[in-house]
Amino acid sequence: MFTDLLGFYPQWYVPNFGSGYVVALIASTHVLFSHISVGASFLLAYLMTKAYRGNHEEIYDYVKKYLFTLLLTSYIIGSLTGPGIWFSTTVSNPRGISALIHNFVWAWAAEWVWFVTEVALVYILYYIFDKVDKKTVMHLSWVFAIVSWGTLLIIVGILAFMMSPGSEKWFVTGNIMDAFFNPNYFPQVGVRTSFTVALAALMGLAVATRIKETALRQDLVRTMSMAGIGGLIFAGMFMVWYLDTLPGRAKVTLDFAIPPAFKTVIFVSIAVLALIFALFYIWPKANRSTAFLIVLMVAVLGLTIFPQERIREWLRKPYIAGDFLYVNQVVARDVPGKNITNEIDTIDEKGFLKVHPFVPESVKTITPENMLEAGRAMAMISCASCHSLDEGGPRPLVLKMEGITRPDLIYQFIERRLSGDPHKGASPYMPKITGTDEEIKALSYYLAHLNYEYLVAKQRGVPLTEVQKEQLEAPIPQPELTQKEQPQAAR
Amino acid sequence: MPDVGTLLNTLRSPSGVDFYPVVIQVLMVLTWAVHMFFINLVIGSMFLTIYGYFQKDLRWRHLSQKLIKIAIISLSLGIVFGVAPLLFTQTIYDNLWYTANNLSASWVVTFVPVVIVAYYAAYFFYFRNKDRSPVWLGVFPIISLLLILLAGSIMHIFSYQELFPDKWIDWYTNGGTTMNTDGWHVYAFSIPRFLMFIFLSFFVTGIFLKGYAWFFGKRTDMDQDEVTWFGTVGHKVAIVSGGLLIADAILYNILQGTMMHPVIWGTIGFVAVVWALLIAWGNRKMSWTAPTLVILAGLSDLSIGIMREAIRMIELAQYNHTIYDYPLNMDIFGPIFFFGTLAVGIAIFTFVLYVLYKGGRVAGVYEASKVETANTAWRMAWYAVVMWLIVFWGTGVIVLSQLNNY
C-alpha cells in the first residue's frame, strides 16, 4: 500500500500570517539590498577611476567611508538574506526550491564563486585601502564591480526560468542552458541592470553633496544625473521587451487581476525620479541634502522594486516554478527531458491523503467520523500554501468564500473553479484540484465548518445578514461517501 | 509505516541530479570544511574576546580587540562559505534536508534574523572596544555569542534530525494522529555532537593565534612582545581544547553507534596526530611550525567534515540508501559553467591574495602596481573576467537563437 507514495514533505503552516509572507519579507529585503550592492559597485569603480585619473584626494576619503557603509548594510543584511531565501522557501515550498536547485545547482555554484569573490573583495578593498597603492585599489574596484554584476547576471537566469521556461524547448531537452537562457532572460537582465545604474546615480548624488571642490562637485552631479536618466530610459525600454516575453497566462493575470494601483505607483514614482534627475542636471546646486537622497532611494525601492517583485510572484501562479510545479507542491505536467511525470493522475486515482507521506494514518481513509479532520488535512496540503485557513494572513478562505456553509455549494465551486479547465470557469491563477471525490467532499465539509465557525465568531461583533443567520441555524449536511472507495482500508 | 528505503527514494527530487553525485559530495565536504573553519574562528574568538575584555591586564584587552575583528571578518566568510555546502546538500541529500528542516520549520526561518542581530551586536562591540571602555559594553559580545550558539544549535537540529528517517513520520504525526504544522517542535538534539564543534572552535582558534603571532612576527610597527604572547595564549587554549575534542568525538561516536567504523577511527586519529604535534613542537620559535599547524587545523576541520559525512552514510546504509544511485540525467553544461567560473575566481584570488600576503608583511604602503609579478597576476585576472563575460553571453545568444526549433 505504501508503494504509492509521492515525494511530499511535512507541511508548515503559520497561522494568520502565511509561510508565503515570510518568504516575501526576506526576499524583498534581499532584493532591495542586492540591487543597491550592484549599483554601489559600479559607482565605486567609477569614482575610483575618476579619483585616480584626476588625483582627487577628496574623493578617496568619501570612497572609503562609503565602502564602510556598504559593508555594514548591504553586505550584512544582503548576504544573509540571500541564503535566507533558501531557508524560507525550504520550509514554505520545499519542492519548489528543490526543483530550482536540481535544475540550477551548477549555475548557483557559479554564482556562489562570484558571491565569495564579491564579499572577500569588499572587505579587502576596505582594509587595504591605505595599505596598497591607489592604482591597485582601482583595479580591484573594477573586478569588484563586474563580479557583483555577475551575481545578478546569474540569478536572473534562475528567476526568469521560475516565471516560465518560455518555450517547449527545456521540457524536451532538460538542458540547464535551455532553462537558463530563456526568452525572459535578456530583457530581465536589461531592466534590472538599468535600474541599478539609476540607483547608483542616486548614491553618487549623495556622495557629491559632501564634495567641497565646486567644479568637481558640479561635474559629479551632472554625470550622475545623466546616468540616472539614462538608466531609467533603458529600464523602461527593456521593460516593454520583458512584458512581451511573458507567458500568455501571466499576461491575462497582469491585465485583469492585478490592481491598477500597483502599476500606477510604479509608473508615477519612476516619472518623478526622472524629473528629479533632470532638475539636478540643469541646476546642480540644488543637490544639497543627503537626507533627501536617502529618503528618495528608500521611496524608489519601496515604490518600484517591491511592487514589481510582488507582481512577478502573482504572475507565476498557479505555478511556483517553471510552469510544471504547482504552488501546492503537485507536479502538474510531464517534463520528458528530466524524466518527470505529472502526479495529477496518480493523486486523483489513489487520493492525496494516501500518497502524502506526512498525512497521519488516522485520516488516510475517510469515514463519517474523521471527515472533518480529513478535510482539514486536505485544506492544509491543497490550499494552505496560497490561502490562510484563519481570518488573517494571505487570501483567507473564510473571507473568500463569503460565509457559505453548504458543503454541496462549496463542492460545486471547487469542481468548477479549480477544474483546471477554463471552459468550466477555472481560474487562471489556481491549480487544478487533485484528490479523490471523497477527499474533495471532505474538504468541502471542512470548509463549510470553517465558515460556520467564522460566522459564529463574527456574530459576537457585527450582526449577521438574514442569509447568514439562516445558514447558521441549518445543520451542516455531511456529504455521502461513495461505497466503492471504502474497501481500500482493507487493502 | 512505509519502508524507510522506499520513503527516502520517494522524497528525492523527480528531476534527478545532472552530474555524478560523488563530485557534488566531494565539493560539499570540502566547502563545508572551509565554512566550519571560519565559524570555528568566530566562536573561539568570541569566547576569548569576552574573557579578555573582563581582564585587568592590558594585553588581554588588546587581544580582545584583535579577536573581535577576527570574529566579524570570519563571520562574513563563514556565511559566504556556508552557502556552498547548503547548495550541495540540497542537491544530493534533498530528501533528508528538506524533511529535517520542515519538521522544525519555524526554527529554520529564525536562523537568519538571529545571525543578523548577532552580527550587529558584535560590530557594536568592535567599534567601542577600547582600552578604557566600560564594563557594560561586554554585554554585547555576550549577546552576540549566545545568538551565534543558538544559530549553531538550529543548524545542529537539522543535520541531526536528518539521521533518523525511520522516525520522521511518527515525529510529525505524533504517532499517526495529527500534523504538527507549527514548526516549533525539536525532535532530536545531541549534546555531545554539538559540543564537538565548540571544542573544535577553541582548538582551531588557539592554533590560529599561533599563526597570527608568526605572520605578524616581522612587523616593526607592532609590539612584538605582545604578538608573541598572543601566540602563547593560543597554544594553551589549543592544547586543552584538543584533548577535550578527541574525548568528546569518541563519546559521540559511541553513542551514535558508529565508533567501530574505520573511517571514524581515521578521522579522530588525524585530529589526535595534530594535537600530538602541537604538544611535541611546544612553543618553539621555529618559523615553519606555526604555519604548518594552521594548515593542519584547517585539515582537522576537513577531517571532522569527513567524519560527519561518514556517519550520515553509515546511518543511511541501514536502509540500503546511498546517494550514489541518485537518478542521473547527465548534463555536462552545468559543470562546465561552474568549473569555468571557478577558474576565473581562482585567477582573481591569485592576484588578490598575492597583494594581501606581500602587503600584510611589510609596514607602510605596498606599491603593488610597481611589482612585475603582481602586474602579471592582475592582467591574467582581468583577462579571465572579460573572457567570462564574452563566453557567457555568447552562449546565451547561441542558445536563444535555436529556440524556434521547438
From TrEMBL, chain A:
Keywords from the named record: Cell membrane, Electron transport, Heme, Iron, Membrane, Metal-binding, Transmembrane, Transmembrane helix, Transport
Membrane disposition: Multi-pass membrane protein
PROSITE patterns in alphabetical order: CYTC (PS51007)
Residue ranges, compositional bias (Polar residues): 480-491
Transmembrane spans: 20-45, 66-86, 106-129, 141-165, 185-208, 220-242, 262-283, 290-307
Recorded GO MF terms: electron transfer activity; heme binding; metal ion binding
GO cellular component assignments: cytochrome complex; plasma membrane
Signal sequence residues: none
GO biological process, one term: aerobic electron transport chain
Name this protein carries in UniProt: Cytochrome c family protein
TrEMBL record, chain B:
Keyword Transmembrane in record: yes
Residues passing through the membrane, by range: 20-49, 70-93, 105-126, 135-158, 194-215, 227-251, 263-281, 288-307, 332-357, 378-400
Keywords, sorted A to Z: Membrane, Transmembrane, Transmembrane helix
Top-rank taxon, per record: Bacteria
Protein name in the entry: Uncharacterized protein
The organism of origin for this protein: Candidatus Carbonibacillus altaicus
Lineage summary: Bacteria, Bacillati, Bacillota, Bacilli, Bacillales
